[in-house]
Amino acid sequence: MRTSLTLLLGGLALLAALPALLSAGLLNAAVQMLIAALFASAYSLLAGRAGMLSFGHAAYFGVGAFATVHGMNAINGTGLLPTPLMPLVGAAAGLVLGIVAGWFATQRSGTAFAMITLAIAELLHALAPQLKGLFGGESGISSMRMPAWGLNFGSTTQVYYLTLAWVLLSLALLHFHTRTPAGRLTLGLRENSHRLRFLGYDVHRLGVSAFAISGLFSGVAGALQVVANESANYVVFDAGVSAGVVLNSYIGGVSVFLGPALGAALMSFFGYAVSDATQAWLLYQGVLFVLVMMFMPQGLVGLGGAAARGVSKLGAARAVPLLLLWLVAVLLLAAGTVFLVELLQRLCSQDYRALARAAATWPPVTMFGRSWTATGLATWAWPVVLLASGGALLAFARRALK
Amino acid sequence: MNAPILELRGLRKSFGETEIIRGVDLALDAGERRALIGPNGAGKSTLFHLISGNLAPTEGSIAFDGRDITGWAPQRINRLGLARSFQITNIFPKLTVFENIRLAVLRQQPQPTAFWRRVDRLPGLREATDQLLERVRLHPRAATLAGELSYSEQRSLEIAMTLASDPRLILLDEPMAGMSAEETDYTLALIREVTAGRALLIVEHDMDVVFSLADRISVLVYGQVIATGTPDEIRRHQGVREAYLGEEVAA
Amino acid sequence: MDALLFGLLNGLIYGLLIFMVSAGLTLIFGMMGVLNFAHASFYMLGAYFAYTLQGLLGFGPAVVAATLLAGGVGAVVERFFLRRVHHHGHAHELLLTFGLSFIVAEAIKLLFGNFPVDYHVPAQLDGPAFTIGSQQYPLYRLLMGGVALVMFAALYLLLTRTRVGIIVRSAIYKPRMVEALGHNVQLVFMGVFGVGAALAGLAGAIAGAFYTTSPNMALEIGVMVFVVVVVGGLGSLGGAMLASLLIGLMTSLAVGIDRSLADLFALVGAGAWAEGVGGLLTLKLSSLSATLPFALMLLVLLVRPQGLLGDKT
Fold first, then answer.
1. Is it the case that residue B243 has pLDDT exceeding 90?
2. Which of A141, A233, B159, C79 lies 20 to 30 Å from A397 when distance is taken between CA atoms?
3. By three-state DSSP, how is residue B4 classified?
4. CATH no., domain A10-302
5. Is 3.40.50.300 the CATH number for B6-250?
6. What is the ipTM score, two decimals?
């Protein structure tokens, strides 16, 4: 309990100090990380705690975004709702859509529920380009942050602190929810909604309530993105956005409150860091997700617990070297996979194939800053060796840790 | 003579072509303890599903305390004062025992679905939960995950959750299944104690329990009640002996 | 009148195509109790396999090969991925299939590019079948419908008339009993999964040549198939057929209707007002045709939540 409190305070201190430590570009990325973390936490209220898998959560993020951008254009600067309070508009929009969509979707459970949420998001995605007044067509709708409360919100630092304040407030409220009767009943929904009926609860209403709150905070996340970017575009309803929050949440691990937030922050950071270096970033994310689902169902936060268990079972002297070995094995496997994927991507790309058709032999491939012969043994030996050695080490480490 | 608290009239239930409940008439008085016995497959659990709202009857009516509850949703029936336990344990496996009972007791609070106050601040909730825990002797296991309890402990939890809503009619579906002799004795005394003043409809196969607990017994065979009477009457009933009790009762 | 006939034919054939994909999904759902999110990915894989092999083998053999390959991928997915997480529960399986569908889409984007590829109908099949009024009806569309009907008939006969079919139907209904009778239920599951995937692959290989083949295919038809399964009733093959045809016809006919709600208002004299309001009221039905299936789904959920031919739980 003391350690988690110290960790929490340390994390908060770090977050507060970030503007002093990071460049403007990185700070911007940090803002997006915070927004992704909030979105994932809002999502996992429904998916992780209530056990209702939504595959169309972009809808609530998106309406929050558009409501806010319209709000900013309509009443910002008139003093009715100052910039720092703009996310309230997003919250309201997310809440309303959450209630409406939730009312339909929670009529069914499990698989059918998931399909309905997907269809609702796709409906919005299909409708949005048609309603140019609301959604602005290809170029979207833009706005401007107006000064309020003595600040002009021109700098990234101010935007960062505004985002941080809202995200922390929302996370605190979400955490409080877990301690309320509604929050406990949400767990009951996941564990045995059938029994709840026979205990006298209106299960449909409970489901709608969980959906609505999840929608509310998703709307806040969308609003924050608009406040940061000063624009909204209908690509925010894209299935990729819904997919992203699912992947982030489960990679992080939904059994712990901050798991999804950490997963989202991690994925967001990596996406920012490597998106210039590779086109396959989303593929790697998908592979990580599938690996987590198959081998680490608790998510990455579960790794910490598993490591602790290993240490307690075998003693630190034996366990730590094995854990390091496991880590090395994972890195080797990752390296091998990345090598293979990057190689294949380059070989299959349009430019390369055009070059290959024109030349007599297959031209060399540029990768990781070096040139590799396409058909050379050395080139293909790398992924084979990396994957084989990584696989062998992993098998050994896993067996030894059992 | 007061009106019966539960009245089934001409109740029928078919699943496709198969008729499971084939015309059941049953009247239960307030405060009466009725045991429902019958061979496996007679339809006892189905009857419970019909009464508690888990299934809708194909024909016939169910009245609780004078109100027609035929086809009502389970939560509506429960709110009227009818609670049931399940033959296959129906608990919240990944929540603690304490949490399981608390969720059941929570329903009695004025605002059970509140999201603005902490659940551990609700007055009386913890006490009521602890009380129930004590009664079913699960207090030492309060912090254990319900899914990790032994089978008979889970049955006790099942009973506790059923009692939480302070019901006027309790339906217990084989509550003692899987319990040792000592546990059965304890649970029997518990049931007797908590159902004082309440109506009880219990399905049980343990004949000692049935004959010592019940005021009256109804015998269900092939979806029909072939006899209702006091334990002595049932013991002597020819049709019942043929259909069900066989030679064991003679002992 | 011609337009109506065209619309009807197109709708029927599109509906049959959707059914080809949802039939396998319905069978698999009935068997596993979990919706295979990646099912539509087999559709997409079929199209891309056929596209890749068309140059080597020619159109016909490429389609056959694509079907078999898609089926093979399906069997592998069931054997090495789904079977492993089966004990974690339905939600877990659903998430895993979701992840797999994501990977397939990204891999295709990576290897073939994030744009449609030039997979087209071969010249011999790219002609008219007959003429309706002044317009010619494409032969290939009829071919697609024909393949779907043949597949449906074959599936029906297989399931109801053959020994394998009886085993499969029993395994779907009571897997443990079938296992106790000595049949290898694991193999049956893998087989049904593979066949379902192969059917989806066949649909993709054929349809991809006519419609667009792009990394987005899976999502487009996937959502449609999910709507079909909700509307028709989970696990009901007849319901899937009914819902597929309904949705196919609805979408197809709506595309030809250039009217909007404002025109409806005009009937009662409020046309000008409706035009002035704009937004949803002036949207033409033809533009909304893609959203109609969702509206149908929401309607069915309101009125008959178990689906048209599904069982009330």
1. no
2. C79
3. coil
4. 1.10.3470
5. yes
6. 0.90
